[in-house]
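ATP synthase subunit delta, mitochondrial-like structure dump, as promised
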Amino acid sequence: MSVFRVSSKFSRIFGHQLRYKSLQIKSRGYADAQMPVTFASPTKIFYDQVNIKQVDVPSYSGSFGILPNHVPVIAMLKPGVVTVYEQDGSTNKFFVSSGSVTINEDSSVQVLAEEAVPVENLDQQACREGLHKAQQDLGSATTDEARAEAQIAVEVHEALVKAVE
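structure tokens r here:
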């Protein structure tokens, strides 16, 4: 059987499916793309469906930047700094203790933090003192639960100190 006959038979059988699938492919342009962002903690809403240029987030799978038309993702936030790049070129930095980030197929982004505070509101000395106390608590922990709680406190305070330096 010749290649022509095989491809012709294939085309007759599967051609309509291939044409249908090719029509479903979306174009991924960035020039006119919108990226509505919602960023909130239980006590405050920082952004609510505001079109943002870029968001950088710290996650347990690695820190990454989010631009319009980003591939859909769900990730857990680790303690660190979320940086929001607004359309006018200004940037805002927020410390988050934990939470989640969801990037949807429609380019909308939700950053939900357990705790969040603007980095400029952090007290460097208090962050260092908190780290010192957390390290002491870790060293004196006698149960698995106390060790786990102290380890979490150390990780958060290390990220706090790094954020204010």
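Residues 1-7 have pLDDT under 50 and may be disordered.
lmk if u need the other ones
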